[in-house]
Amino acid sequence: MLWYKAWRESRIRFAISAAVLVGFCIFATMSRRQLGPVGSGSLTLRIHHLIYAGTAKGAFALLSLFLGLGGLVRERARRTSTFTLALPVTRLQIVGTQIGMGLLQLAVLSLVPVLFLPPLSRLVDAPVALRYTLHYSILWFVCGSTIFAVAYLLSVFLEGEYTAAVLCYILLMVQALVASWQPLRPYRLNLLWTMANNDLSGKLGVPGNRLLALALVTAAIFALAAWRTQKEDF
User: Which of 73, 119, 204, 233 has the fewest CB atoms nearer than 10 Å to its CB?
Assistant: First the structure.
C-alpha cells in the first residue's frame, strides 16, 4: 500500500525525468547534422561533453532534486496528511517507503545512459563501451542520492509546493561556489564535478573514499529527516 502510494505521488516526475534523459541519449548519438559527423573517436567525446560533463548531467541533478520533494509536511499543505497518518503504519515506515521509492527511481534514471547509449551508438558504427557508461552511472546515483536527500530533508521542514526545491537549488549553487574556492579546489568537493569525473587526471575508476563519504552524509540526512518527521505535530 505505502509503496503504491509513493509511486502514485512521484510517477509523473519520474516519467518526465526518464523522458528527458532518453531524449538526451538519442540526441547525443543520432544528431549528426547539429553536432557534426560521427568519427571513430568523436562520438565518445560528444557523449562525454553533452551527457556526462554538460547539460544532461545538470538536468539529472535538477531531476534528483524534484524527486526528493515529499514528506508529511508537504502533504499537510495539500491537506492529505490526515489520510496518510490514518493508515495502520508508523511514520518511520512512511518515510522509509518514500526514501526507498526515490532511491529506486534514481537508480533507474542513472542507468538510462547504460541502457540506451551502447545500443544507439552501435547504430552509427561507433560503439560506446558499457564499462564507460556504468562508471558514470555509479557517480550519478551516489551524487544524485545526496541531492535527493537534501531536497527531502528541506521538504520535511518547509511547507509550500516548491519552497524546498528553490532552497535546495540555491544550496547546490552555493556548494559549487564554495567548492571552487582555490584552497578547496584540489579536494573536488563539488557534486557536479564528481558526477562528471572522479579526479583531475580524467581516468576511469570509482573514487571509493569520496563515494563512501557521500553515502554516509546521505544516510545522516535521511536519519535527520526521519527524526524530524517523528517529532512533528500534525
Answer: 233
Sign of torsion over alpha carbons 108, 191, 225, 234: negative
pLDDT digits (tens, 9 = 90+) for 190-218: 888 888 874 434 455 667 788 899 999 99
Of the candidates 29, 62, 6, which has an alpha carbon nearest to the alpha carbon of residue 192?
62
Neighbours of 11 (CB within 10 A): 12
In 3D, which of 61, 69, 62 has the Cα closest to residue 160? 69
The domains of the chain are located at: 2-231
Task: Give the span between the Cα atoms of 188 and 170, in whole angstroms.
Answer: 19
Phi-psi region of 209 (alpha: psi -120 to 50; beta: other; left: phi over 0): alpha
Q: Check if the beta carbon of residue 143 is closer than 8 Å to that of residue 195.
A: yes
Query: What distance in Å separates the CA atoms of residue 200 and residue 206, rounded to the nearest whole number?
Result: 13
**How confident is the model over 109-127, as pLDDT tens digits?**
999 999 999 999 888 877 8
In the block, residue with C-alpha cell 571513430: 40
